[in-house]
Amino acid sequence: VGAGVNGIPVLSVMTWAPFVSALVIMFFARHRPLLVRWTSLVGTAVSLAASAWVYWAYDRAAAGFQFREELPLVPSLGISYLLAIDGMSALMALLTSIIIFAGVFASWTVKERSQEFYALLLVLVTGVYGVFVSFDLFILFLFYEIAVLPMYLLIGIWGSSGHIRPQGIFGWAMGRTGVGTKEYAAMKLTLYLLFGSAFILVGLLALYVAAGSRSFSFFALESVPFDHSLQTWVFLAFYVGFGILAGIWPLHTWSPDGHASAPTAVSMLHAGVLMKLGAYGVVRLGMGLLPDAAVDWAWLVGTIACINIVYGALSAMAQTDLKYVIAYSSVSHMGVVMLGAATLTEVGLNGAVFQMFAHGIMTGLFFALVGLVYEKAHSREIFRMGGFGSMMPGIATAFTIAGLSSLGLPATAGFVAEFLTFLGAWSSEYRWWLVPGVIGAFLTSIYVLRVARQIFWGPKTDDPHFQNLPDAQGPEWAALGILVFVLVLFGVVPGIAIAPVDTSTVPLIERLTGR
Amino acid sequence: MTADLVSALIPELALFALAILVLVGGLVQQGDPAGRIGWFTFAGLIAIFGLTFVSSEGASLFGGAFVLDSLAVFAKRLFVAAAALSLLGSLTLKQSSFVRRSAEYHFALLVSLLGMVVLASARDLILLFVAFELMSIPLFVLTGFLRRESVAPEAALKFFLVGTASSAVIVYGMSFVYGASGSTAVSAIPAALADGHPLMMLGMALLMAGLGFKIAAFPFHMWAPDAYEAASTPFVAWLSVAPKAAGFIALIRLYVEGVGSAALIWMPALSVLAGMTIVTGNLMAIPQQNIKRMLAYSGVAHIGYMLVGFAALSSSGVGMMLFYLVAYMFGNMGAFLVVEAVAQSERSDGIDAYRGLAQRSPLLALAMLIFLLSLGGIPFVAGFWAKLYVFWAAVERGLYGLVFLGAVLTVVALYYYLLVARRMYIEAPDRRDPVAVPGLLGAAIVICVLGVVGIGVYPGPWVDIAMRVASTLF
Q1: Residue A145: which of B379, B396, B407 has the nearest Cβ?
Q2: A187 at the B interface (CB within 8 A)?
Q3: Predicted complex ipTM exceeds 0.85
């Protein structure tokens, strides 16, 4: 048994702490809502501490994969419990910790069946951590499934239904599907993501059999020079499989429905972290294991990313439901992530990873705010609300900061991410990718500022429903404070993220271009 | 010699004796309100399950027509265990026809089981066919057993017609095989196949079609939903597993055992059959409003997944198929037993009867969710490993297209399984009172949950057993 550092398997602690607290909740906290919340908070705090410590203790000079833990599970098939971390994983684990820690605060007011809610949420988080730190691909796949499945119940039971009247020539057909309801969204999201995981599974099996080494270890498979034609289709399988989760066009449609219907903490986690799982999978498995195919398919990945950026932004502009605006902005921003990865340059890939982090925090903040607004005003319709800035100055300020980061204002994390990505696009083989990227940033500023002005800073509405609304309270401040702080911190001092990320992107790019 | 015979045939002899005793008991005692016959049969089956461990493995009787290799022993245990589970579920049935004609029901069940147990060992075409008929004919009777149900006679007749037609096709195919090979011994098939006689190929193709009826593969699956809907649920739980397993054993005997790499000529046909079966089963299951019909179609799809493993025609493929059978037995029987529990309380097999079950009977809903997830192939329950291993074996043979198709259609399957989960967990219940589950039925459900979760968490030993059985065939 290889243990992490000083005999403490710190990565396992980080991964399983939420799971343990989920068990505690199910068995010892029945019908005691406050205990449920505190148990969740303790579990996620342990993970936060562990991930922050790992992030800080990661030896950047030595680089590579550190804190390795290994335990053979099924030796005959080469399956082992193999955890490790590098700069990219460390940043993603830190993101997960921040979002879920804030998410527990943000969902403090969940009343209905809160015990099951928190338990499922924590199980899901375990799956997310697991994907980021597992380097046995089979175990990674299992964690991936854990991260996807609880979503069905989380959205189906605790979600909210919107009012959508489908229009257009297929409107009648869409209407019959029940679009807009939480049941529809939950089913759609689950099926899309499981559809993706079917592709991933086939790809993994193909690599395992082709390598012939009877091992699922990432490190073992990394050194195998796979046949070019195998690489070509397995990369596509991984791109489609993980890409669905990353919201690539045209397989993104689960994301707006799912994120709009999900309860606050789930939207935060899903848009903030789970979509990054998809991008992480494409980068780690697709580009890491299949370098030749990654170079071959870069044009496809980049072009679709450009469509994502512009299409997502245009769709966001057309929405009248606040949650859908944020959800479509995620589709647009995930395009930036994929664009950065497709540039196959160090700076572009750094931008992609940084954007994963920045967008995760930002969209987490957005969904927390939308959840708060909905809870106070019981409305998500942008054009019915107005002038909330005077009643809820704290929420309004936080929303504006998130919005400014979203459109890439300097001194926020969003700026660094987009700047690096665009720099990468300019120095890549396809310079024209810069154009849709910049157009996307421009469109983002339109829809974000429009929403901020309408709801918060414009003239106050006369609607009697929207008078004397309270600002954020108690634990909700904690959620907002943490996220705003991180967003600004990483915008002002981007080096604290770039330095560790560099340790994993530099070798990856060397492998891709020096073949 | 006699001692050898007895030690090899002891499960069959015991089963025969048990069947006769049940028949005589039914003549002596009119009606069975206390369920004594059921209990007696159940105890007998447990004893026979034990006897399968006593009988001497490796025996070969009657000039190789009856063998007791590890495949036969594996299959016998599977059949008897499935029958015992089903009986545990039906012991508490209170319908008047069950009480009145209890002996008849149990006798037919035992005779059918006897047919399967003999079939597991048959390595001669004649014996194989006789065993098949011994198994099938009581199944027709049992399907129409609940005569008060208006659909029962129709379903039984349909099943009977399809079943006898398929038997005719099998016999017809066997006649060609005999004509080409000059022997009724299954062991003569590989040599005759190597000669490449066209009649041999015709015969084997006809046999495959006939066996396709038995396992309800596309396009021979139409009898399954009607039969399942009409028959009593604990019996359906068994019907959905054991006869299909028997069909697969026959397929293995005829197409794989001792044939070696020459078997690969069947790969294209089997792949197409597997793919079509998966697609049809999964798509037809979607619109079903009756959960038994839905499970029937999903069962057709599962047969397709087993055929994926079989189509690999490799040691690992057949082994994984056998493992799939075990996983399927626990998952599918468990689901049907929950259906029985809900039907007893709600008087309905509709999917709508499951509304809010999680709030009425959380444990029953959880059990159903586990079974559905296992059937859907979700990690940490048995079905995931079953699908994974089957795909694995197919990928080793390079059947990427088939694996893609199968993997993508698992998502379709999850759609209709999740529709049930949605009724149970998301929708609000119409009533608040818990669903009453009879103790024995509950015990059977618990056994299935333990099986599904146990295999799901620690599949190793089960895989090893299945692989060891399969390795003797190549």
Answers
A1: B379
A2: yes
A3: no
